[in-house]
Write a structure and sequence with these properties.
429 residues, alpha+beta, six-stranded mixed β-sheet, 17 helices, 45% helix, elongated
Length: 429
């Protein structure tokens, strides 16, 4: 999504808050790197330096490194990584500096780090080094605890870190606020949380702007709309023209298409600047449309036809408002859609916190669990394509009249075989 050219560990570490969506504290951060196309040849030497691109980023509480559940998650997740290199970064105030020697507050922590390194090595991922830094703030000094020394960088082809002035071993943190990613995130209207608790707290429920009675009327109208549009499993299955058995889910296909167009219209209003999340939150008609879409899995899946880059920011804004206003299954669906919009958006930092919140509140919510698995392993493009394909498939199965944009997006996704590969992804926060 964003490209920051980094030359030292400190510059690379400065990008971590924009990836996680918060500034980690007392954490182990695992940064993996993919080798990409070599840079242009140096005009003097003719050398073509190897370049690396940041891959999945995993974060674990230091206190949890000996926890059986956390280790089990790492043991399941690390084998899915395909990146050849990894950097380990310990962000902790419990680091003592004695001259040039780095001493961790507890020897036990060193043992736990070695356990993580063994998991990575077993996956044929080279741990290029392990660094410690008190905080990810501009000017903080990072130090390398261990790893491949700079003079042996060729062993793992670490041209990225052939940096001057011994920056491989120690140096000053870059400025997180000065990274291209941070500037673009702020421009898009996002903010990076101070810590993980604040990041998760952004999805906390709030009193409905329409008031309790106003929200009750919205929910009543939404349920009435769903009853008009859909059948909820009372009738026997119907036989389609082609002979396949279809559950009689849709009563009014044209009405469903109208609902989806109305939902898209809300997003278009946000994109055009004609509406804001706040203005829609106090609009009973708009909230009824959203409540109807979020009130049934079929309607929710049809809304995934808007999971395109054009609507990524607007969809995130609308679903964030919905997730804080609605309760129960509608809130969970809103959290899931919020995360899915981010899969194709300008940043993905709220994706994992939103899905973790959804799964914590409803462990059986299949869409959230699937999306979280994908987000952990980084298949964002595949996840976005699968959303478009799913919406198109629902339209086709239930003979919902095509919305022009949905039709084109769905057919494009359906034509790409990778769009079905939604079983692994990146970045654990």
């Amino acid at each position: 999504m964003f490209t920051d050219i980094t030359h030292t560990p400190g510059e690379l570490f400065a990008t971590v808050p924009t990836v996680l969506g918060f500034f980690p504290q007392e954490s182990l951060v695992i940064l993996t790197l993919d080798e990409v196309e070599p840079a242009a040849a140096d005009p003097t030497s003719g050398d073509r330096p190897t370049r690396y691109q940041l891959g999945p980023v995993l974060r674990v509480n230091l206190d949890n490194l000996d926890d059986g559940e956390t280790l089990g998650q790492l043991e399941r997740l690390i084998p899915t990584l395909s990146q050849p290199l990894a950097f380990l970064l310990v962000v902790s105030q419990e680091v003592a500096t004695i001259g040039e020697t780095i001493v961790l507050a507890e020897e036990e922590l060193t043992r736990r780090l070695r356990r993580v390194e063994r998991l990575l090595h077993a996956n044929r991922t080279i741990v290029a080094g392990c660094w410690v830094v008190p905080e990810l703030l501009k000017g903080e000094t990072y130090h390398r605890i261990h790893g491949h020394p700079a003079e042996d960088a060729a062993v793992v082809d670490l041209e990225l870190l052939r940096s001057p002035n011994g920056a491989w071993d120690s140096g000053d943190m870059g400025d997180p606020a000065g990274t291209h990613a941070m500037r673009a995130i702020v421009k898009a209207g996002y903010t990076v949380a101070v810590d993980r608790e604040e990041a998760l707290g952004t999805f906390a429920p709030v009193p409905p702007p329409l008031g309790v009675e106003g929200m009750q009327r919205v929910l009543q109208r939404a349920e009435e709309s769903i009853s008009r549009l859909l059948s909820r499993g009372c009738e026997p299955p119907a036989v389609a023209a082609a002979g396949e058995i279809l559950a009689p889910r849709v009563r009014d296909a044209a009405g469903v298409a109208t609902l989806v167009r109305a939902y898209r219209g809300l997003l278009q209003g946000l994109v055009a600047g004609e509406e804001t999340p706040e203005s829609l939150s106090v609009d009973p008609e708009a909230m009824t449309i959203v409540a109807t879409v979020l009130g049934d899995s079929l309607l929710r899946d049809l809304a995934m036809g808007t999971m395109t880059e054009d609507y990524a920011v607007a969809g995130h804004q609308l679903m964030h408002a919905a997730a804080t206003i609605f309760r129960g299954p509608r809130r969970i669906n809103a959290l899931a859609l919020l995360a899915l919009y981010q899969a194709g958006g300008p940043c993905r930092m709220h994706m994992v916190p939103a899905l973790m919140t959804a799964c914590a509140e409803d462990a059986d919510h299949r869409l959230s669990r699937l999306a979280l698995d994908c987000a952990h392993k980084g298949m964002f493009t595949d996840l976005q394509r699968a959303c478009l394909r799913a919406a198109h498939a629902v339209r086709r199965e239930y003979r919902i009249p095509d919305d022009e944009d949905d039709s084109a997006a769905g057919e494009h996704a359906a034509g790409d075989p990778r769009s079905a590969a939604v079983d692994d992804g990146r970045g654990r926060a």
